[in-house]
Amino acid sequence: MSAGEHNRNHIDETIKTQTLEKLVENFVNKGYPEFKPIQHTTQVVSGINHKYKIQVGKNAYIHCKIHENTKGELSVISVDEGKTLSDAL
Questions:
Q1: Which contacts of 33-42 are long-range, i.e. CB under 8 A and separated by 24 or more positions?
Q2: pLDDT tens for residues 25-78?
Q3: How many Å apart are CA 8 and CA 19, to the nearest integer?
Q4: What single-letter DSSP state applies at residue 46?
Q5: Is the entire prediction scored with pTM above 0.70?
């Protein structure tokens, strides 16, 4: 892999994280001091369901479910706050 591809992938992940952060913060109508996805699973349905465990502060985590439709559009299904690192996704 060339250095350019590596940088592009890093930028892609940054953009994905920023997009996810905006979606989630708009859904819950508040911001978080930190936003670091640490676990991600997918389920293929009519589109894709994405489940994320996200660190949003010191020892503070949320779980969120995002649906990606067949056109690639994203929508938040749920956000569960008050989670811990050891909580199952």
A1: 33/57, 34/58, 34/60, 38/85, 39/89, 41/89
A2: 999 999 999 999 999 999 999 999 999 999 999 999 999 999 999 998 999 999
A3: 16
A4: S
A5: yes
Task: Look at residue 9 in the predicted model and tell me its pLDDT.
Answer: 52
Where do the domains of the chain lie, and which CATH numbers do they carry? 3-83 (3.10.450)
Tell me, what's the pLDDT at 2? 40
Instruction: Show the 3-state SS of 2-32.
Output: CHHHHHHHHHHHHHHHHHHHHHHHHHHCCCC
Note whether 84 and 59 are within 8 A (CB): yes
Banded model confidence at residue 13, pLDDT cuts 50, 70, 90: confident
Say how far apart CA 54 and CA 79 lie, in whole Å.
Answer: 10
